């Protein structure tokens, strides 16, 4: 095991190497570039036994990964923002083909207007594609989650691809310490690549062919089933990882001081880390506030949210995302999960941090104070509020 | 104990590398660290900011640095377009690459240390593509002015990061900057 | 095509093996049938290359053999034949 200090992007490269990935097909895009540059470095210097395919676009990157995964090897790629959007139709194909591809998504806002800074509009707008989605809060988690993801994706009850999301610049270009386990340790945790089916020249067939209305729905249901199975397996794999490497992340949701809380701030990504500072400050001042970070967004952690909601008066969601014409997805899906509960908590939704607008512990405290006020008055000032918007 | 540092420079001067070297040096000494850039226009010459955090505890904060304890300025003229003391804590320290005195570069009233890092670079022929390299030597001045990190740790990281002759030159520049830097609050002239 | 009523018997994603005539004997779709005049045939094998249904096989001497179980009578072979050795005749009922 080595303790290194490096950017989350480079650390993602270390993870792909440790996972013994055999094919990487990728196209560069800010702020993802240094992930694949690191991997290219590893391959070129012989430190990583893999094929690096320089493709002409992100769409080609994904279809190359589909081909490689279908041919029976562990694959990896990375992208951001418009690169992810360009892959959109191939993302559907990857999950429908039940291929366990793992991709790092370095979150970056969508244009127009053009932005290189982080928000979750890129990955969240792909939530329907059948990919599992993990959101990381620090550099260490990026490494650990990539390794955990391969184990999950290649589990025969799952066989789905996964996106490991990390905020551009906030994590991607931020140098911080991380423990990189040695290869033997990772090999002990992550067995050899397994797929649900494989192209074989001796027994030729093609995959995912035309399916009539008579069967298509069942194929789609099987993906939904796999997502449900993943909900059971994610906490198990996390715990197993924790036992072996000494680090775990609370399964689907990482909770902080939620016991006895009246208000819980629900966030994703690095805001979840920042929120802990807010909670400590507010708890010190006598407010019963907790924080819960949604680590896994797909499958959506319905059961954990229901459990969390049982003992709190209010949940405030902070979305680094907007679905125009409605609200942020974390907000709407949390409300959907809780709608049928008899004594459900009050739920406020905040939109913050779009296009890399900084969200500090102070900002989160302001949102928490607004929420506490709504809680005391028994009614929401606004169902969805855009935080810190210029007049 | 959390200390926050902001580094001002121009694209191409190595502000981001300076932040990383500083973080790596503090890391060797057992601190928790963070180093990150703020990118504006991605081009040479445009003002850039880089940040570092040094702490005795794991660092949970990921947002930007607004009230730095220390500010490092790589470019002697950037103060004309950027307010380098914005948000700087009252008793914070500014470390500047300049030949002039603090009151000549708009820093009267602040705790300032200066060193002619550009001069040192030219003296040692530490120049790449016409650009005198000041991002490592300025850290020597930082070590002396703040005691947050030892000169030795910085030298270790510099040696590891740049191999051969480049490493030697960078180390020499860092040592010279450490020796020659002036802590103006001790000298009395502001 | 393996038809199944139970979801439990379905594979993860449809996997299709090459199968001869999975849609049945499509020869019965024919209105016109191609007939080869082997005297005129120069064994150029263009008809074999062009047949969209792979219903023409190439014999050892490069002459074409038409599989009337699957030939749909599209007439492309007759159209491409450089010596007009193939004639399209009305299929008898």
Summarize this, please?
In chain B, 33% of the residues lie in helices and 24% in strands.
Descriptive key words:
B: 190 residues, alpha/beta, Pyruvate-ferredoxin Oxidoreductase, domain 3, two-stranded antiparallel ribbon, globular, C: 93 residues, alpha+beta, Alpha-Beta Plaits, 19% strand
Explain what this protein looks like in three dimensions.
The complex is a heterotrimer of chains A (391), B (190) and C (93). Chain A is α/β, with parallel strands linked by helices. Chain A is built from 13 helices and 16 strands. Chain A folds into two domains: 244 residues, Thiamin diphosphate (ThDP)-binding fold, Pyr/PP domains (Rossmann fold, 3-Layer(aba) Sandwich), CATH 3.40.50.970; 134 residues, 3-Layer(aba) Sandwich (Rossmann fold). In chain A, 40% of the residues lie in helices and 19% in strands. In chain A, α2 links the parallel β2 and β3. By secondary structure, chain B is an alpha/beta fold. Chain B is 33% helix and 24% strand. In chain B, the strands form two sheets. In chain B, strands 2-3-1-4-5-6-9 form a seven-stranded mixed beta sheet. A two-stranded antiparallel sheet of chain B has the order 7-8. In chain B, a hairpin with a 2-residue loop joins β7 and β8. Chain B is globular and about 40 Å long. The mean pLDDT of chain B is 92. Chain C has a domain of 59 residues: Alpha-Beta Plaits (2-Layer Sandwich), CATH 3.30.70. Helix content of chain C is 11%, strand content 19%. Chain C contains two helices and five strands. In chain C, the strands form two sheets. A two-stranded antiparallel ribbon of chain C has the order 2-5. Chain C has a two-stranded antiparallel ribbon with strand order 3-4. Chains in contact: A-B, A-C. At the A-B interface, β8 and α10 of A face α1 and β2 of B. β9 of chain A pairs antiparallel with β1 of chain C.
């Amino acid at each position: 095991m080595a303790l290194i200090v490096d950017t989350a992007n480079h650390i993602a490269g270390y993870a792909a190497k440790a996972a013994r990935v055999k094919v990487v097909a990728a196209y560069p895009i800010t702020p993802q570039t240094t992930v694949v540059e690191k991997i290219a470095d590893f391959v070129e210097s012989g430190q990583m036994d893999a094929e690096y395919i320089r493709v002409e676009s992100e769409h080609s990157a994904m279809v190359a990964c589909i081909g490689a995964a279908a041919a029976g090897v562990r694959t990896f790629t990375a992208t951001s923002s418009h690169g992810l959007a360009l892959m959109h139709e191939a993302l559907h194909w990857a999950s429908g083909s039940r291929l366990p591809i793992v991709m790092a998504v370095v979150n970056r806002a969508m244009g127009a207007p053009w932005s290189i800074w982080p928000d979750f509009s890129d990955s969240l707008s792909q939530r329907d594609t059948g990919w599992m989605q993990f959101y990381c809060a620090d550099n260490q988690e990026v490494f650990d989650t990539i390794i955990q993801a391969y184990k999950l994706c290649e589990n025969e009850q799952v066989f789905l691809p996964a996106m490991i999301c990390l905020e551009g610049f906030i994590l991607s270009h931020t140098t911080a310490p991380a423990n990189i386990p040695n290869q033997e340790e990772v090999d002990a945790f992550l067995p050899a690549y397994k797929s649900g089916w494989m192209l074989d020249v001796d027994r030729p067939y093609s995959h995912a062919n035309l399916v009539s209305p008579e069967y298509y729905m069942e194929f789609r249901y099987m993906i939904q089933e796999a997502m449900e199975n993943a909900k059971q397996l994610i906490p198990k794999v996390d715990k197993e990882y924790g036992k072996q490497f000494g680090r775990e992340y609370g399964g689907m949701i990482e909770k902080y001081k939620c016991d006895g809380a009246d208000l819980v701030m629900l966030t994703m990504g690095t805001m979840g880390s920042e929120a802990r500072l807010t909670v400590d400050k507010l708890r010190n001042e006598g407010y019963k506030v907790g924080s819960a970070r949604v680590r896994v967004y797909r499958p959506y952690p319905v059961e954990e949210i229901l459990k969390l909601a049982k003992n709190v008066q209010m949940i405030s969601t902070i979305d680094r995302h907007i679905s125009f014409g409605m609200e942020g997805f974390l907000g709407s899906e949390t409300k959907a999960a809780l709608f049928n509960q008899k004594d459900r908590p009050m739920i406020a939704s905040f939109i913050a941090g779009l296009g890399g607008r900084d969200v500090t512990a102070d900002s989160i405290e302001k949102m928490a104070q607004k929420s506490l006020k709504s809680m005391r008055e028994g009614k929401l000032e606004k169902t969805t509020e855009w935080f810190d918007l210029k007049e | 104990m959390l200390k926050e540092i902001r580094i001002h420079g121009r694209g191409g001067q190595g502000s981001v590398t300076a932040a990383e070297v500083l973080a790596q040096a503090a890391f060797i000494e057992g601190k928790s660290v963070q180093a990150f850039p703020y990118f504006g226009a991605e081009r040479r010459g445009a003002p850039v900011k880089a940040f570092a955090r040094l702490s005795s505890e794991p660092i949970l904060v990921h947002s930007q640095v607004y009230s730095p304890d220390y500010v490092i300025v790589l470019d002697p003229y950037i103060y004309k377009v950027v307010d380098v003391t914005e948000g700087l804590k009252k008793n914070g320290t500014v470390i500047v690459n300049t030949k002039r005195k603090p009151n000549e570069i708009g820093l009267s009233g602040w705790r300032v240390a200066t060193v002619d890092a550009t001069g040192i670079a030219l003296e040692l022929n530490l120049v790449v593509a016409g650009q005198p390299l000041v991002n490592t030597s300025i850290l020597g001045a930082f070590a002396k002015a703040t005691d947050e990190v030892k000169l030795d740790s910085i030298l270790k990281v510099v040696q590891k990061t740049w191999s051969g002759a480049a490493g030697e030159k960078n180390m020499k520049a860092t040592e010279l900057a450490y020796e020659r830097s002036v802590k103006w609050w001790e000298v009395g002239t502001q | 095509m393996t038809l199944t009523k139970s979801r439990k018997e379905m594979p993860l994603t449809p996997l299709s093996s090459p199968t001869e005539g999975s849609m049945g004997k499509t020869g019965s779709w024919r209105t016109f049938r191609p007939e080869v005049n082997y005297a005129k045939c120069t064994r150029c094998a263009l008809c074999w290359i062009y047949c969209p249904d792979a219903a023409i096989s190439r014999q050892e001497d490069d002459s074409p053999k038409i599989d009337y179980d699957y030939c749909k009578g599209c007439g492309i072979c007759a159209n491409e034949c450089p010596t007009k050795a193939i004639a399209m005749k009305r299929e008898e009922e």
